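From the shared-data thread, chain only:
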Amino acid sequence: MYKAMSFPLLLRGFVVLGVMLMHTTWYFSHAHAESWVTISEMLLDIISLFAVPLVMFVSGYMFISHNRHADYYKWSFFRRMFLSVLSPYLLFSLLYLGGAWFFSNASFTLKQAAYLIITGSSAVHMAFFRALFGFYAIYPLLLRYFNRCRLHHRLHRFIIQVILLQLFWKICNNISCSNQAVILTLEITTFLRYIAYFSFGMLAYIYHKKMLRWIDTHHVLLMTGFILNLILIGGCWFAKYYLHILPLLEFVCFPLNLFLYSIIIAMLFRYACTLESQDSLSKRFMMYLGNYSFGLFLIHIIYMYVGSELLTLLHMSPQQLCFYPLLFIIMLSLSLLTMEALARVSWGHYFIGHVSRL
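Structure, as tokens:
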């Protein structure tokens, strides 16, 4: 049992570090000078954006590992999964709205607050839940189509289709549009933004050993692809943020991002398998993070703002290199202390979900 749950916990541990790194590097755009610190932060920010794709990859992996026959359950599956995360979703949505009202003087009518909660818009990263609820709804259908493609040896068609579907949604989302029906449709179908990563997670569970062998035999190809894609995406970002030219380059980034983050996920997948066979401090730490991943994902954003304010009081700014590691340490340590405190009270699971005893 311990071995069976260790691999998903390791993957979720990488998710925690990736999400916190992503929100640490959020501040790179605040640095106005084209300095080496800013450029380095920009590259690190590009890499750290693997976190949300990895969340979706792990979700696909976990969905199919626990729900191989969900194609028979249909709406009962959606209801069960939806109710399992409803309490923390509502609590943190209210917490984020309260924080915006208290710290940023934001004001909401009851109708506006209800709309933000229902649409998963109380905070930027709550769009993750919007996507997750979408996968709860379409997973039985997706699983049925996935199984059909497997039986007829057409998985290559399945992979191409989910990749094209994801890219198509990204393109539509980035085209300026004021039509409310179109905007609402894009919000409802947020899950399509990540459907390729989610499907890769399903494939990784079914073809676990084959995937590991493929990664091992194509290590040089993956490293070359990582470096080339990082350089190309970095060039597009530099042109967008500092040269303010060629907005079309943003659309060029979509397939490049897909390749880059898929490569990073493959490398982390391989490394998680290596850690799983060890009895090391790094393995235990990653599993510890993975065990609290749900609560850490929700609460760390609060400490991002707290850390930023503390560092500002100490006269540190995003233009200084030391700002970033200190912000990361503050965010991680305070989040973990909060998790430990909540895990010790009877009502803590409403905030952090159910955690295992390791």
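The chain is about 75% helix and 0% strand.
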